[in-house]
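Morning. Coffee machine broken again, so started the prediction first thing and wrote up yesterday's gels while waiting. Chain of 472 residues, entered below exactly as on the submission form.
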Amino acid sequence: MKRREFIKMSALTALFLTVGGSLTPAHAATSIASKTVVNITLDGGPDFKHLIVPPFDTDAQSYGGAYWRARASIFRTKAGDVTKLRQAYIDNYDEVTFDGMRFGILKSCTWLKNEIRSGNVAIVNNVVASTNRNHYHSKLIMESGSLRTGSNETDISGWGGRSVTELDANVVAVTRGVRLVCNGPDALRGYNNKRVISNYDSRNMGLYLYDTQADLESGSRNYIWSTQAIISRSLRGYYGAKAAEIPQNSPYRKFITQERQLRQFGDQLKVRLKGVPIPAAIKALYEGSSPLESPYFGKQVRNLYDSFATQDILSMRFASMEYTGWDSHREQHRSLEAKFGDLFGTNKGLHTLITALNRLNSNIYNNTVFVISGEFGRQLKSNGDYGTDHGRGNSMLVIGKRVNGGFYGDPFPAEDIDRLEIKNEDIVGKTSMFQVFAKVLDWQEKGLGSRVFDLNNQPIEPGVYLSRMLQA
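Came back before lunch.
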Protein backbone atom coordinates (compact mmCIF):
# COMPACT_ATOMS: atom_id res chain seq x y z
CA MET A 1 0.00 0.00 0.00
CA LYS A 2 1.44 3.39 -1.00
CA ARG A 3 1.68 6.19 1.55
CA ARG A 4 -1.11 8.18 -0.14
CA GLU A 5 -3.37 5.12 -0.12
CA PHE A 6 -2.49 4.43 3.52
CA ILE A 7 -3.51 7.95 4.56
CA LYS A 8 -6.69 7.80 2.48
CA MET A 9 -7.69 4.49 4.03
CA SER A 10 -7.13 5.85 7.52
CA ALA A 11 -9.30 8.88 6.76
CA LEU A 12 -12.07 6.81 5.26
CA THR A 13 -12.09 4.48 8.23
CA ALA A 14 -12.39 7.49 10.51
CA LEU A 15 -15.76 8.26 8.92
CA PHE A 16 -17.18 5.19 10.61
CA LEU A 17 -15.97 6.26 14.01
CA THR A 18 -17.55 9.72 13.80
CA VAL A 19 -20.97 8.15 14.20
CA GLY A 20 -20.03 6.09 17.22
CA GLY A 21 -19.75 2.75 15.44
CA SER A 22 -19.81 -0.44 17.42
CA LEU A 23 -16.46 -1.51 18.79
CA THR A 24 -17.61 -4.63 20.55
CA PRO A 25 -15.63 -7.86 20.01
CA ALA A 26 -16.08 -9.41 16.58
CA HIS A 27 -18.26 -12.50 16.24
CA ALA A 28 -17.53 -15.57 14.20
CA ALA A 29 -20.50 -15.02 11.92
CA THR A 30 -22.83 -12.23 10.89
CA SER A 31 -25.81 -11.36 13.04
CA ILE A 32 -29.38 -11.67 11.77
CA ALA A 33 -29.62 -9.40 8.75
CA SER A 34 -31.38 -6.05 9.08
CA LYS A 35 -33.59 -4.75 6.31
CA THR A 36 -31.15 -3.26 3.82
CA VAL A 37 -31.53 -1.30 0.58
CA VAL A 38 -28.89 -1.68 -2.13
CA ASN A 39 -29.10 1.16 -4.66
CA ILE A 40 -27.49 0.45 -8.05
CA THR A 41 -27.18 3.53 -10.26
CA LEU A 42 -26.79 2.94 -14.00
CA ASP A 43 -25.05 6.10 -15.20
CA GLY A 44 -25.85 7.32 -18.68
CA GLY A 45 -29.57 6.70 -19.12
CA PRO A 46 -30.17 2.93 -19.44
CA ASP A 47 -32.65 1.81 -22.07
CA PHE A 48 -34.84 -0.66 -20.18
CA LYS A 49 -37.00 -0.87 -23.32
CA HIS A 50 -34.09 -2.79 -24.82
CA LEU A 51 -34.01 -5.22 -21.88
CA ILE A 52 -37.72 -6.07 -21.89
CA VAL A 53 -39.48 -5.84 -25.26
CA PRO A 54 -42.86 -6.67 -26.78
CA PRO A 55 -42.96 -9.84 -28.87
CA PHE A 56 -42.56 -9.18 -32.58
CA ASP A 57 -45.87 -8.78 -34.40
CA THR A 58 -46.46 -8.63 -38.14
CA ASP A 59 -49.34 -6.22 -37.52
CA ALA A 60 -47.81 -2.75 -37.84
CA GLN A 61 -50.74 -1.28 -35.88
CA SER A 62 -50.01 -3.37 -32.78
CA TYR A 63 -47.47 -2.33 -30.14
CA GLY A 64 -45.17 -5.23 -31.07
CA GLY A 65 -45.33 -4.31 -34.71
CA ALA A 66 -44.80 -0.58 -34.18
CA TYR A 67 -41.99 -1.07 -31.64
CA TRP A 68 -39.88 -3.37 -33.82
CA ARG A 69 -40.27 -1.16 -36.86
CA ALA A 70 -39.40 1.99 -34.92
CA ARG A 71 -36.24 0.35 -33.55
CA ALA A 72 -35.24 -1.73 -36.56
CA SER A 73 -31.96 0.13 -37.09
CA ILE A 74 -30.69 -0.99 -33.66
CA PHE A 75 -30.63 -4.52 -35.05
CA ARG A 76 -29.09 -3.43 -38.38
CA THR A 77 -32.21 -4.05 -40.42
CA LYS A 78 -34.98 -2.07 -42.09
CA ALA A 79 -38.44 -1.35 -40.75
CA GLY A 80 -40.10 -3.11 -43.66
CA ASP A 81 -38.05 -6.32 -43.47
CA VAL A 82 -40.49 -8.43 -41.47
CA THR A 83 -38.43 -11.63 -41.79
CA LYS A 84 -35.26 -10.10 -40.35
CA LEU A 85 -37.12 -8.30 -37.57
CA ARG A 86 -38.79 -11.53 -36.50
CA GLN A 87 -35.42 -13.27 -36.55
CA ALA A 88 -33.82 -10.49 -34.49
CA TYR A 89 -36.46 -11.09 -31.82
CA ILE A 90 -35.95 -14.87 -31.88
CA ASP A 91 -32.14 -14.61 -31.84
CA ASN A 92 -31.83 -12.09 -29.03
CA TYR A 93 -34.79 -12.59 -26.70
CA ASP A 94 -36.39 -15.34 -24.64
CA GLU A 95 -40.15 -15.08 -24.46
CA VAL A 96 -41.78 -15.04 -21.03
CA THR A 97 -45.38 -14.83 -19.86
CA PHE A 98 -45.82 -13.44 -16.37
CA ASP A 99 -48.34 -11.30 -14.52
CA GLY A 100 -50.69 -11.53 -17.49
CA MET A 101 -48.08 -10.07 -19.84
CA ARG A 102 -46.17 -11.70 -22.71
CA PHE A 103 -42.77 -10.16 -23.39
CA GLY A 104 -39.20 -10.83 -24.47
CA ILE A 105 -36.14 -10.51 -22.23
CA LEU A 106 -32.53 -10.43 -23.43
CA LYS A 107 -31.02 -13.90 -23.60
CA SER A 108 -27.97 -12.66 -21.72
CA CYS A 109 -30.18 -12.07 -18.65
CA THR A 110 -31.19 -15.62 -17.71
CA TRP A 111 -30.89 -15.06 -13.94
CA LEU A 112 -33.21 -12.07 -14.12
CA LYS A 113 -35.67 -14.09 -16.22
CA ASN A 114 -35.77 -16.77 -13.51
CA GLU A 115 -36.19 -14.17 -10.75
CA ILE A 116 -39.09 -12.61 -12.65
CA ARG A 117 -40.72 -16.02 -12.97
CA SER A 118 -40.18 -16.56 -9.23
CA GLY A 119 -42.02 -13.32 -8.51
CA ASN A 120 -38.99 -11.55 -7.05
CA VAL A 121 -38.85 -8.62 -9.51
CA ALA A 122 -41.06 -5.54 -9.65
CA ILE A 123 -40.77 -3.89 -13.07
CA VAL A 124 -41.92 -0.32 -12.57
CA ASN A 125 -42.67 1.38 -15.88
CA ASN A 126 -43.19 4.96 -17.03
CA VAL A 127 -41.16 6.37 -14.15
CA VAL A 128 -39.54 9.78 -14.27
CA ALA A 129 -37.33 11.82 -11.96
CA SER A 130 -35.49 14.38 -14.03
CA THR A 131 -36.97 17.53 -15.50
CA ASN A 132 -34.48 17.49 -18.40
CA ARG A 133 -32.17 15.35 -20.56
CA ASN A 134 -28.85 16.54 -19.12
CA HIS A 135 -26.82 13.72 -17.55
CA TYR A 136 -25.17 15.69 -14.77
CA HIS A 137 -28.20 17.67 -13.68
CA SER A 138 -30.48 14.64 -13.91
CA LYS A 139 -28.19 12.63 -11.65
CA LEU A 140 -28.20 15.42 -9.08
CA ILE A 141 -32.00 15.40 -9.11
CA MET A 142 -32.30 11.63 -8.90
CA GLU A 143 -29.74 11.14 -6.13
CA SER A 144 -30.82 14.13 -4.06
CA GLY A 145 -34.46 13.05 -4.40
CA SER A 146 -35.72 16.54 -5.16
CA LEU A 147 -36.97 18.20 -8.35
CA ARG A 148 -35.86 21.54 -6.89
CA THR A 149 -32.19 20.59 -7.11
CA GLY A 150 -30.31 23.01 -9.37
CA SER A 151 -27.76 22.10 -12.03
CA ASN A 152 -24.81 23.17 -9.85
CA GLU A 153 -26.05 22.07 -6.43
CA THR A 154 -23.57 19.46 -5.28
CA ASP A 155 -23.42 20.50 -1.60
CA ILE A 156 -26.72 18.82 -0.72
CA SER A 157 -27.85 15.63 0.92
CA GLY A 158 -28.94 12.46 -0.87
CA TRP A 159 -31.97 10.31 -0.17
CA GLY A 160 -29.85 7.37 0.98
CA GLY A 161 -27.93 9.52 3.44
CA ARG A 162 -31.14 11.02 4.80
CA SER A 163 -32.67 7.56 5.23
CA VAL A 164 -29.83 6.17 7.37
CA THR A 165 -29.82 9.35 9.46
CA GLU A 166 -33.46 8.62 10.26
CA LEU A 167 -32.61 4.97 10.96
CA ASP A 168 -29.54 5.83 13.06
CA ALA A 169 -27.42 3.60 10.83
CA ASN A 170 -24.79 3.92 8.08
CA VAL A 171 -24.40 4.03 4.31
CA VAL A 172 -21.71 1.82 2.83
CA ALA A 173 -20.37 2.96 -0.55
CA VAL A 174 -18.60 0.12 -2.37
CA THR A 175 -17.71 2.37 -5.33
CA ARG A 176 -14.47 4.22 -6.09
CA GLY A 177 -15.98 7.50 -4.90
CA VAL A 178 -18.88 8.30 -2.62
CA ARG A 179 -21.94 9.23 -4.67
CA LEU A 180 -24.21 12.15 -3.76
CA VAL A 181 -27.03 9.73 -2.85
CA CYS A 182 -24.99 8.76 0.23
CA ASN A 183 -24.67 12.29 1.65
CA GLY A 184 -26.36 12.92 4.95
CA PRO A 185 -28.16 16.18 5.87
CA ASP A 186 -26.53 19.10 7.63
CA ALA A 187 -28.46 22.27 8.47
CA LEU A 188 -25.41 24.53 8.16
CA ARG A 189 -23.26 23.01 5.42
CA GLY A 190 -25.95 21.36 3.34
CA TYR A 191 -24.61 17.82 3.77
CA ASN A 192 -22.14 15.71 5.72
CA ASN A 193 -20.62 12.26 5.41
CA LYS A 194 -20.68 11.33 9.09
CA ARG A 195 -22.71 8.22 8.34
CA VAL A 196 -20.83 7.13 5.22
CA ILE A 197 -18.32 4.29 5.14
CA SER A 198 -16.28 4.12 1.95
CA ASN A 199 -15.54 0.44 1.45
CA TYR A 200 -13.99 0.22 -2.00
CA ASP A 201 -11.19 -2.07 -0.79
CA SER A 202 -12.98 -4.21 1.77
CA ARG A 203 -10.03 -6.45 2.61
CA ASN A 204 -7.81 -3.50 3.51
CA MET A 205 -10.04 -1.48 5.81
CA GLY A 206 -8.51 -0.05 8.98
CA LEU A 207 -4.94 0.86 9.79
CA TYR A 208 -2.21 -1.22 8.22
CA LEU A 209 -0.36 -3.45 10.69
CA TYR A 210 3.23 -4.32 9.84
CA ASP A 211 3.57 -8.11 9.94
CA THR A 212 7.06 -9.51 9.52
CA GLN A 213 5.90 -13.10 9.16
CA ALA A 214 3.30 -12.23 6.53
CA ASP A 215 5.88 -10.28 4.55
CA LEU A 216 8.31 -13.18 4.76
CA GLU A 217 5.65 -15.59 3.55
CA SER A 218 4.85 -13.30 0.63
CA GLY A 219 8.42 -13.73 -0.60
CA SER A 220 9.38 -10.08 -0.20
CA ARG A 221 13.11 -9.53 0.32
CA ASN A 222 12.83 -5.89 1.29
CA TYR A 223 9.86 -6.02 3.64
CA ILE A 224 11.73 -4.25 6.46
CA TRP A 225 12.32 -1.19 4.30
CA SER A 226 9.02 -1.16 2.44
CA THR A 227 7.08 2.14 2.62
CA GLN A 228 4.11 0.62 4.38
CA ALA A 229 6.30 -1.18 6.91
CA ILE A 230 8.18 2.02 7.76
CA ILE A 231 4.99 4.05 8.15
CA SER A 232 3.32 1.33 10.19
CA ARG A 233 6.23 0.94 12.62
CA SER A 234 6.70 4.69 12.94
CA LEU A 235 3.06 5.54 13.60
CA ARG A 236 2.48 2.67 15.99
CA GLY A 237 5.56 3.61 17.99
CA TYR A 238 4.69 7.31 17.96
CA TYR A 239 1.11 6.86 19.17
CA GLY A 240 2.21 4.28 21.72
CA ALA A 241 4.72 6.70 23.20
CA LYS A 242 2.34 9.66 23.15
CA ALA A 243 -0.37 7.64 24.90
CA ALA A 244 1.83 7.54 27.98
CA GLU A 245 2.83 11.22 27.80
CA ILE A 246 -0.34 13.18 26.96
CA PRO A 247 -2.58 13.94 29.97
CA GLN A 248 -6.10 12.58 29.98
CA ASN A 249 -7.57 16.10 29.99
CA SER A 250 -5.46 17.34 27.07
CA PRO A 251 -7.36 18.33 23.89
CA TYR A 252 -4.77 16.30 21.97
CA ARG A 253 -5.85 13.15 23.78
CA LYS A 254 -8.65 12.65 21.24
CA PHE A 255 -6.06 11.83 18.55
CA ILE A 256 -4.66 9.06 20.72
CA THR A 257 -8.16 7.76 21.39
CA GLN A 258 -9.07 7.84 17.71
CA GLU A 259 -5.92 5.95 16.70
CA ARG A 260 -6.72 3.23 19.23
CA GLN A 261 -10.34 3.04 18.05
CA LEU A 262 -9.25 2.84 14.42
CA ARG A 263 -7.01 -0.10 15.23
CA GLN A 264 -9.78 -1.83 17.15
CA PHE A 265 -12.21 -1.23 14.31
CA GLY A 266 -9.77 -2.57 11.72
CA ASP A 267 -8.98 -5.56 13.92
CA GLN A 268 -12.67 -6.44 14.18
CA LEU A 269 -13.06 -6.40 10.42
CA LYS A 270 -9.89 -8.41 9.85
CA VAL A 271 -10.82 -11.04 12.45
CA ARG A 272 -14.30 -11.41 10.98
CA LEU A 273 -13.16 -11.53 7.36
CA LYS A 274 -10.33 -13.92 8.16
CA GLY A 275 -13.04 -16.48 8.80
CA VAL A 276 -14.96 -15.48 5.66
CA PRO A 277 -12.87 -16.30 2.58
CA ILE A 278 -13.83 -14.59 -0.65
CA PRO A 279 -15.90 -17.10 -2.65
CA ALA A 280 -14.05 -18.27 -5.75
CA ALA A 281 -17.01 -17.32 -7.95
CA ILE A 282 -16.88 -13.71 -6.69
CA LYS A 283 -13.10 -13.50 -7.01
CA ALA A 284 -13.39 -14.64 -10.62
CA LEU A 285 -15.57 -11.61 -11.41
CA TYR A 286 -12.70 -9.15 -10.99
CA GLU A 287 -9.48 -11.16 -11.23
CA GLY A 288 -7.76 -12.53 -14.33
CA SER A 289 -10.00 -13.23 -17.30
CA SER A 290 -13.20 -11.93 -15.73
CA PRO A 291 -16.46 -13.04 -17.39
CA LEU A 292 -17.71 -9.48 -16.93
CA GLU A 293 -17.31 -6.61 -19.33
CA SER A 294 -16.79 -4.51 -16.18
CA PRO A 295 -14.45 -6.17 -13.63
CA TYR A 296 -14.97 -2.95 -11.66
CA PHE A 297 -18.54 -4.04 -11.02
CA GLY A 298 -17.16 -7.42 -9.98
CA LYS A 299 -14.99 -5.75 -7.37
CA GLN A 300 -18.02 -3.91 -6.04
CA VAL A 301 -19.72 -7.30 -5.68
CA ARG A 302 -16.78 -8.45 -3.56
CA ASN A 303 -16.95 -5.29 -1.44
CA LEU A 304 -20.68 -5.68 -0.89
CA TYR A 305 -20.31 -9.34 0.04
CA ASP A 306 -17.73 -8.37 2.67
CA SER A 307 -19.96 -5.53 3.85
CA PHE A 308 -22.79 -7.99 4.50
CA ALA A 309 -20.35 -10.32 6.25
CA THR A 310 -19.53 -7.43 8.62
CA GLN A 311 -22.95 -5.75 8.55
CA ASP A 312 -23.34 -5.64 12.32
CA ILE A 313 -19.94 -3.98 12.69
CA LEU A 314 -20.62 -1.47 9.91
CA SER A 315 -24.24 -0.85 10.96
CA MET A 316 -25.14 -0.92 7.24
CA ARG A 317 -28.73 -0.29 6.20
CA PHE A 318 -28.05 1.28 2.78
CA ALA A 319 -25.42 0.37 0.20
CA SER A 320 -24.43 2.24 -2.94
CA MET A 321 -23.24 0.59 -6.17
CA GLU A 322 -22.80 1.86 -9.72
CA TYR A 323 -22.40 0.69 -13.30
CA THR A 324 -21.37 3.30 -15.85
CA GLY A 325 -21.53 3.58 -19.63
CA TRP A 326 -25.25 3.40 -20.49
CA ASP A 327 -25.31 6.39 -22.87
CA SER A 328 -26.25 4.30 -25.90
CA HIS A 329 -26.29 6.77 -28.78
CA ARG A 330 -24.43 4.28 -30.99
CA GLU A 331 -24.29 0.52 -31.48
CA GLN A 332 -26.80 0.00 -28.69
CA HIS A 333 -27.46 -3.68 -29.22
CA ARG A 334 -23.82 -4.70 -28.96
CA SER A 335 -23.01 -2.53 -25.94
CA LEU A 336 -26.15 -2.97 -23.85
CA GLU A 337 -26.43 -6.74 -24.13
CA ALA A 338 -23.06 -7.19 -22.39
CA LYS A 339 -23.87 -4.62 -19.69
CA PHE A 340 -27.27 -6.08 -18.90
CA GLY A 341 -25.61 -9.49 -18.91
CA ASP A 342 -23.06 -8.34 -16.32
CA LEU A 343 -25.89 -7.38 -14.01
CA PHE A 344 -28.45 -10.07 -14.71
CA GLY A 345 -26.76 -13.03 -16.35
CA THR A 346 -26.43 -16.49 -14.85
CA ASN A 347 -23.15 -16.69 -12.85
CA LYS A 348 -22.63 -12.97 -13.42
CA GLY A 349 -22.85 -10.02 -11.02
CA LEU A 350 -26.06 -10.21 -8.99
CA HIS A 351 -26.56 -13.95 -9.37
CA THR A 352 -23.06 -14.66 -8.05
CA LEU A 353 -23.48 -12.19 -5.20
CA ILE A 354 -26.85 -13.49 -4.03
CA THR A 355 -25.76 -17.14 -4.30
CA ALA A 356 -22.76 -16.37 -2.09
CA LEU A 357 -24.85 -14.35 0.38
CA ASN A 358 -27.34 -17.19 0.75
CA ARG A 359 -24.48 -19.49 1.72
CA LEU A 360 -23.15 -16.91 4.15
CA ASN A 361 -26.50 -16.25 5.84
CA SER A 362 -29.85 -17.33 4.44
CA ASN A 363 -31.56 -14.28 5.97
CA ILE A 364 -29.61 -11.71 3.96
CA TYR A 365 -31.43 -11.93 0.62
CA ASN A 366 -34.73 -12.27 2.48
CA ASN A 367 -34.04 -8.88 4.06
CA THR A 368 -32.43 -7.04 1.15
CA VAL A 369 -34.00 -5.07 -1.68
CA PHE A 370 -32.02 -4.06 -4.78
CA VAL A 371 -33.18 -0.88 -6.52
CA ILE A 372 -31.83 -0.40 -10.06
CA SER A 373 -32.37 2.82 -12.00
CA GLY A 374 -30.75 5.51 -14.12
CA GLU A 375 -31.00 9.28 -14.29
CA PHE A 376 -33.33 9.19 -17.33
CA GLY A 377 -34.39 6.93 -20.18
CA ARG A 378 -34.06 6.89 -23.97
CA GLN A 379 -36.31 8.01 -26.78
CA LEU A 380 -38.92 5.65 -28.17
CA LYS A 381 -37.52 5.61 -31.71
CA SER A 382 -33.95 4.66 -32.61
CA ASN A 383 -31.61 7.20 -34.17
CA GLY A 384 -29.46 6.93 -37.29
CA ASP A 385 -26.44 5.52 -35.44
CA TYR A 386 -27.96 2.21 -34.37
CA GLY A 387 -28.78 3.55 -30.91
CA THR A 388 -31.20 5.78 -29.04
CA ASP A 389 -30.89 9.35 -27.81
CA HIS A 390 -31.72 10.92 -24.43
CA GLY A 391 -35.30 10.67 -23.23
CA ARG A 392 -37.04 11.32 -19.92
CA GLY A 393 -39.35 8.47 -18.92
CA ASN A 394 -37.93 5.05 -18.21
CA SER A 395 -38.42 1.83 -16.25
CA MET A 396 -36.69 0.66 -13.09
CA LEU A 397 -36.33 -2.64 -11.24
CA VAL A 398 -36.88 -3.56 -7.59
CA ILE A 399 -35.53 -7.03 -6.79
CA GLY A 400 -35.70 -9.16 -3.65
CA LYS A 401 -37.40 -12.04 -1.85
CA ARG A 402 -39.78 -9.58 -0.17
CA VAL A 403 -40.88 -8.13 -3.53
CA ASN A 404 -44.34 -8.81 -4.92
CA GLY A 405 -43.18 -9.23 -8.48
CA GLY A 406 -44.89 -8.11 -11.64
CA PHE A 407 -45.50 -5.03 -13.76
CA TYR A 408 -46.28 -1.75 -12.05
CA GLY A 409 -47.38 0.45 -14.93
CA ASP A 410 -48.02 -0.62 -18.51
CA PRO A 411 -44.76 -1.43 -20.35
CA PHE A 412 -46.49 -1.33 -23.74
CA PRO A 413 -49.18 1.39 -23.57
CA ALA A 414 -51.43 1.60 -26.63
CA GLU A 415 -51.12 5.38 -26.59
CA ASP A 416 -47.45 5.03 -27.57
CA ILE A 417 -48.11 3.18 -30.83
CA ASP A 418 -48.37 6.31 -32.98
CA ARG A 419 -45.65 8.09 -31.01
CA LEU A 420 -43.12 5.29 -31.66
CA GLU A 421 -42.53 6.63 -35.17
CA ILE A 422 -41.89 10.21 -34.04
CA LYS A 423 -38.29 11.28 -33.48
CA ASN A 424 -37.47 12.87 -30.09
CA GLU A 425 -40.54 11.35 -28.45
CA ASP A 426 -40.06 10.34 -24.80
CA ILE A 427 -41.68 7.66 -22.72
CA VAL A 428 -44.43 9.52 -20.87
CA GLY A 429 -43.47 9.83 -17.21
CA LYS A 430 -46.50 8.85 -15.15
CA THR A 431 -44.94 7.72 -11.86
CA SER A 432 -42.37 9.69 -9.90
CA MET A 433 -39.23 7.68 -9.23
CA PHE A 434 -39.23 9.25 -5.77
CA GLN A 435 -42.52 7.49 -5.03
CA VAL A 436 -40.82 4.17 -5.78
CA PHE A 437 -37.79 4.99 -3.61
CA ALA A 438 -40.13 6.11 -0.83
CA LYS A 439 -42.08 2.84 -0.87
CA VAL A 440 -38.83 0.91 -0.57
CA LEU A 441 -37.88 3.00 2.46
CA ASP A 442 -41.34 2.43 3.96
CA TRP A 443 -40.54 -1.29 3.79
CA GLN A 444 -37.50 -0.61 5.96
CA GLU A 445 -39.49 1.41 8.47
CA LYS A 446 -43.09 2.55 8.34
CA GLY A 447 -43.37 6.20 7.33
CA LEU A 448 -39.66 6.53 6.48
CA GLY A 449 -40.31 7.43 2.82
CA SER A 450 -42.37 10.51 3.61
CA ARG A 451 -39.72 11.67 6.10
CA VAL A 452 -36.98 11.42 3.46
CA PHE A 453 -38.90 12.70 0.40
CA ASP A 454 -41.33 15.54 -0.16
CA LEU A 455 -43.98 13.54 -2.01
CA ASN A 456 -46.37 16.43 -2.63
CA ASN A 457 -47.25 16.62 -6.32
CA GLN A 458 -45.22 13.46 -7.06
CA PRO A 459 -47.52 11.39 -9.31
CA ILE A 460 -48.31 7.69 -9.44
CA GLU A 461 -49.77 6.19 -12.62
CA PRO A 462 -53.50 5.48 -12.27
CA GLY A 463 -54.08 1.84 -11.41
CA VAL A 464 -50.57 1.38 -10.01
CA TYR A 465 -50.45 0.43 -6.32
CA LEU A 466 -46.87 0.76 -5.15
CA SER A 467 -47.95 0.02 -1.58
CA ARG A 468 -48.35 -3.62 -2.68
CA MET A 469 -44.82 -3.84 -4.08
CA LEU A 470 -43.13 -5.13 -0.93
CA GLN A 471 -44.03 -7.52 1.85
CA ALA A 472 -43.37 -6.42 5.43
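The radius of gyration is 24 Å. Going to sketch it on the whiteboard this afternoon.
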